[in-house]
Design brief:
The chain is mainly α. Helix content is 70%, strand content 0%. The longest helix is centred in the C-terminal third of the chain and has 21 residues. It is flat and about 40 Å long.
């Protein structure tokens, strides 16, 4: 089956956005990436491993942003 080379980008952007709005909205911010991940699984677009593999770089980049912004 042919798969997109940027298949994790939607979860990456959702997680990065959720991390940025978390201070204002609390845990509700993470409902957005969770729903996107679930929709990818239930529509059989991706495998289970694709969900955390797409969210992890978003969280990592946010941590990197915080470290750079603190300097």
């Amino acid at each position: 089956m042919l798969r997109s080379c940027a298949s994790r980008s939607n979860r990456y952007v959702a997680m990065l956005t959720a991390c940025h709005i978390y201070p204002h909205t609390g845990v509700f911010a993470f409902m957005f990436p969770a729903l996107i991940g679930l929709s990818c699984l239930f529509t059989k677009q991706h495998y289970l491993i694709d969900v955390p593999a797409g969210a992890a770089p978003g969280w990592f980049d946010y941590c990197l942003y915080l470290k750079i912004a603190a300097t």
